[in-house]
Amino acid sequence: GIARHYTFNIKHHNFTRLCTTRSVLTVNGQWPGPRLVAREGDRVVVKVVNHIPNNVSIHWHGVRQLGTPWADGPSYVTQCPIQTNQSYIYNFTISGQRGTLLYHAHISWLRAYIYGAIIILPRKNESYPFQKPHKEVPIIFGEWYNVDPEAIVSQALQTGGGPNVSDAFTINGFPGPLYNCSSKDTYKLKVKPGKTYLLRLINAALNEELFFSIANHTLTVVEADAVYVKPFETDELFITPGQTTNVLLKTKPDFPNASFLMAARPYFTGRGAIDNSTTAAILEYEPPSNHKSHTKQLPLIKPSLPPINATNIVANFTRKLRSLANSKFPANVPQAVDRKFFFTVGLGTNPCPQNTTCQGPNGTKFSASVNNVSFNLPSVALLQSYFFGQSNGVYTTDFPTNPLVPFNYTGTPPNNTMVSNGTKAVVLPFNTSVELVLQGTSILGIESHPLHLHGFNFFIVGQGFGNYDPNKDPANFNLNDPAERNTIGVPSGGWVAIRFLADNPGVWFMHCHLEIHTTWGLKMAWIVLDGPQPNQKVPPPPSDLPPC
Ligand code: C2O
């Protein structure tokens, strides 16, 4: 591979949407940020320069970072953030991955606007395992806020209540024609009849899982999270924050006398504030040169999208995703397991601090946890603390591998819904084969949680509704061609079982990719050693990492 050099200047820039002008955080003044393009096997070198008052770091979401765990990017996990007027050069190689990923800021809610596409092309002499597209187009979902998202999260933390929702969803930065004062702010995809387009879908929204559909067009799913899948056709897509999906769009053979909306809106099962609106872009056919009526305004056809709580559509879509699992692209599913973990994921509450009133459930503060532990980020980076043996007061390695008190997770919640706080990690010897069951809980309503694991792809070997049954459910696990991803929605009112091989030494964050749930503590860390012994280390971090 070759080296691809980029400079990302993190700076403010004015954008106007919904008739509101705001200065938002951008990469090089662009929102979404510039595309990062590389071939499989290439080295990527990105100099990130911080021109804003906030600290910042960039995460290369889904890039495995084999041998470069310090380049992963989550602030206070693998590095201290880059301070104002400072810079840091991320340097990593992309190996064994091809397709679409995303990068985004990884501190507080700065990823609200700091995000962009990572496009991984096949190696020079290799082609796609599907029809070569006429054109490739990133379609990036995001959110627009008429106020500063940082003010929203700090208010939510102060009051203990849920955050205000964004004012619009966006496609490539545009809310589209279904919002007030937005018809000009519409992304248009111009296409020719009878061609195949590769749409690289990315959900970079902060807090919403989304359905996506294009009116009168069927899509063929060919890749998810930079792994090829067995192609299948669908009229509607489901995509959580942090997930990416490549689809083929075959345009109609002849010029149609209509334009078509492509639209996205949320899947949501919990309670609380919700933006149920629809973002849309226009799929517009270029008229043939001999076409008479091309000055006429063509009718615009809208797609139908699933209802907001369509849990079965989500489950069916997720089940259709299967690895190619052929000789060229094998699915290396761990067949035997060294360690089994069972994690509950869900919302809970913490007591309201004295002399304050809290707007969470019953006057408490909202919280979120894994196995009842709400994770606090330290004020130094875990990776360096671990390497230099400075764990004292930073973190402990006693993260519970099972819930402390098992209960009926999707039934009536137990009385005590309080969670404990801590900075706890699990230590895994090199090459541990891990099975992890993620069980959604109903403590504060049944909700789906898109769980993202840094540093690995995992295989989704099973999923179901209700409580996971360790005696029955493993018999139905798919160990042949399960989907291989970095982010998976833990089903609303159900569970998902994943397997991965801990072959990548480093400190790896795992969290819900709904930003408010991460904020509330639905996060934890894995420490993967470079050898089999507990006294072994993680690779030595370079000395030029930013200081805290
Ligand atoms: Cu895309 Cu830790 O996040």
UniProtKB/TrEMBL annotation:
Q: Which InterPro entries would you find in this protein's record?
A: Cu-oxidase-like_N (IPR011707), Cu-oxidase_2nd (IPR001117), Cu-oxidase_C (IPR011706), Cu-oxidase_fam (IPR045087), Cu_oxidase_CS (IPR033138), Cu_oxidase_Cu_BS (IPR002355), Cupredoxin (IPR008972), CuRO_1_LCC (IPR034288)
One GO biological-process annotation of the entry reads:
lignin catabolic process
- Chief location: secreted
Know the name of this protein? Laccase
**Keyword Aminoacyl-tRNA synthetase carried by entry:** no
Q: Which NCBIfam families match?
A: laccase
Which Pfam families does this one have? Cu-oxidase, Cu-oxidase_2, Cu-oxidase_3
The root-end lineage is: Eukaryota, Viridiplantae, Streptophyta, Embryophyta, Tracheophyta
Q: Which GO terms describe its cellular component?
A: apoplast
Q: Which cofactor does it need?
A: Cu cation
Q: Which terms in the Gene Ontology molecular function aspect does this entry carry?
A: copper ion binding; hydroquinone:oxygen oxidoreductase activity
Regions that span the bilayer:
none
Organism name: Rubroshorea leprosula
Give compartment(s). Answer: Secreted, Extracellular space, Apoplast
Query: Which keywords are on file for this protein?
Result: Apoplast, Copper, Glycoprotein, Lignin degradation, Metal-binding, Oxidoreductase, Repeat, Secreted, Signal
EC numbers, comma separated: 1.10.3.2
